[in-house]
Write a structure and sequence with these properties.
The protein is α+β, with helices and mostly antiparallel strands. Strands 3-2-4-1-5 form a five-stranded antiparallel beta sheet, with helices on both faces. The protein has one domain.
Length: 174
């Protein structure tokens, strides 16, 4: 992997917003504004007990959780109870495993708080992202108040730490 790595979350306040995000992401790729390493959607329809996670390179939700660092991260963020101290236990452990990568507890906690029924997100692991161009494209919907861009600039050793996380799982000792 070359270039600067980053993790962006395009959070929409509608359950289908991430579908529009997929189109925008493809446009950014075609322009050369971002090189996507991994991406997935999280769509949580109101009334559903859990969100649907879909991998942009795989057709099924099962594929998103197997062999995907993002699938693992989102799975941990969404796991467990939504309220109380126990809600952060999985996030705290994951943040500990990701210490020094650029993905911290606050980022993971904000992601958890934003992913609620009736919302969606496009989660993108990329290199060489022109964040000014990405932000401009992602926030086109901001006039409707429906999209927020979260961003974590990853450290140089983040790719190996993320690969270790995938290999060992989030609960493995550090």
């Amino acid at each position: 992997m070359t270039g600067t790595s980053s993790l962006t979350v395009w959070h929409y306040d509608t359950a289908m917003g991430a579908a529009a995000g997929e189109v925008r992401l493809k446009d950014l790729q075609q322009r050369g504004a971002v090189t996507v390493l991994d991406a997935l959607t999280v769509m949580w329809v109101k009334g559903a007990h859990q969100p649907r996670v879909g991998h942009l390179r795989h057709a099924t939700a099962t594929a998103a959780s197997k062999g995907s660092v993002l699938g693992l991260v989102v799975g941990v963020v969404l796991a467990g109870p939504v309220v109380g101290a126990a809600a952060g236990a999985g996030i705290a452990g994951l943040a500990q495993r990701l210490r020094g990568t650029g993905i911290d507890h606050d980022f993971l906690q904000e992601l958890r708080e934003r992913l609620t029924p009736g919302t969606s997100a496009l989660v993108v692991l990329s290199t060489d992202a022109d964040l000014d161009e990405v932000r401009e494209v992602v926030e086109r919907g901001r006039a409707r108040g429906d999209v927020t861009l979260m961003h974590a600039q990853l450290s140089d050793d983040a790719p190996s730490a993320l690969a270790d996380l995938l290999r060992d799982g989030p609960g493995a000792p550090t």
